[in-house]
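Colleagues,

For the teaching module next term, I've prepared a clean inverse folding example: a structure given as tokens, and then the sequence designed for it. I'd like students to try predicting residues themselves before seeing the answer, so please don't circulate the second half yet.
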């Protein structure tokens, strides 16, 4: 993990994400980038409509306030002897974050979220959920203070679908940095009773094929995969979930959704995500 990006709106979850990023950077000899995005209100999308003029004094005041808060955050990292850079950018939040990640070759994003539910989740979605969907690198989403030393048991839901090579390589890198145990789990949502021993053997074969170490294989029965993942995490008292996701867009995402993004919105522990390339 060479470069870690922390999108920061100075909310409590964002501050906790920054502190976790500092811990991860210390453990992996990475540098930390803290990005504050000021989203300007746009009245119309029509390219023929002139953009509204903004009060330059207001923009200057907002930037100065953000600079002071970023400086306060940067002071926290001095005792860790880490390289921390801060940046303020104007633009749409999600696209600004993902553009910064790409242009600066960021290898991990750590961000906070409050999570959402109900109709807001269906129609809007959280910023974290959207970043998860579009980021070109792994994303860790946190809601509360989490010490790096607590992240010793990672749940890795696995449906044994093909094309997971890149995902597994990233999960193994995460496991190595955290020095954690990986708990692979198949969430059994079928009406018929599947033989758990056969599934466990398939998971074991999967682990051997990818030369995984320090892991367990598990089968967990649930009516719903998302609920099953969360309940299994609570059942074994795990401290993190690692999941792959597919970058659906438009109507495909609206109708099908994403189990990973739903878990991001609803789980309390940190969740590590990575977009699986097709």
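(Answer key — instructors only)
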């Amino acid at each position: 993990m060479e470069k870690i990006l922390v999108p920061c709106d100075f909310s409590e979850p964002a501050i906790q994400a920054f502190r976790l990023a500092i811990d991860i950077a210390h453990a992996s000899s990475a540098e930390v980038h803290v990005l504050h995005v000021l989203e300007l209100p746009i009245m119309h999308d029509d390219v023929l409509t002139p953009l509204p003029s903004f009060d330059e004094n207001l923009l200057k005041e907002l930037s100065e306030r953000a600079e002071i808060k970023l400086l306060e955050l940067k002071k926290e990292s001095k005792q860790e002897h880490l390289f921390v850079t801060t940046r303020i950018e104007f633009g749409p939040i999600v696209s600004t974050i993902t553009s910064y990640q790409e242009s600066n070759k960021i290898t991990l994003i750590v961000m906070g979220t409050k999570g959402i539910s109900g109709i807001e989740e269906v129609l809007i979605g959280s910023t974290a959920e959207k970043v998860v969907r579009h980021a070109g690198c792994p994303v860790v989403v946190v809601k509360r203070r989490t010490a790096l030393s607590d992240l010793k048991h990672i749940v890795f839901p696995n449906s044994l679908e093909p094309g997971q090579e890149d995902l597994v390589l990233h999960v193994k890198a995460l496991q190595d940095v955290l020095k954690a145990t990986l708990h692979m789990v198949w969430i059994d949502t079928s009406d018929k009773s599947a033989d758990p021993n056969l599934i466990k053997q398939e998971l074991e074969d999967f682990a051997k094929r990818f030369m995984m170490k320090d892991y367990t294989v598990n089968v967990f029965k649930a009516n719903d995969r998302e609920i099953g993942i969360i309940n299994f995490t609570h059942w074994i008292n795990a401290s993190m979930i690692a999941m792959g996701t597919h970058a659906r867009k438009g109507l495909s995402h609206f109708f099908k959704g994403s189990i990973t993004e739903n878990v991001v919105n609803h789980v309390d522990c940190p969740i590590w995500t990575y977009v699986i390339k097709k």
